[in-house]
Write a structure and sequence with these properties.
This protein is mainly alpha-helical and 140 residues long. The protein has six helices and two strands. It is 46% helix and 9% strand.
Length: 140
Amino acid sequence: MAGVISTPHTLATEAGMQMFRAGGNAVDAALAAAAVLTVVYPHQCALGGDAFALVESASGDVTAYNGSGAAPAGLDADLLRARYDGIPDAGPLSISVPGLVAAWYSLSSSQGTLPWAELLAPAIALADDGVAVSRSLAAG
């Protein structure tokens, strides 16, 4: 097993290390850790958000993944342009379709080596069993 991972929570770091031990690569480890963070830090890392990633290959090529949410299909862009100089900071017209899960899927299918179910298994187990609430969530 070769790999290093660091996260803000020990359970997420351990999930990443599990992926390395299972023969996964850095993308697998990062995705497993990110999934766990949605369970242990739901106020900071949510499935309803966006994701951006840069992945460098062994040859040095870098691939960018843009998991920013798309505008809703029914949004009238001309109406938006007529009323605002840009996307509003607040309100219903500022909301996009979350892109995080699509970004994870794209990363996993193009760069990962382990099955999607294996990557999500640690997060699912923690969600089923429950975890202690973090100080930052309790204080919120």
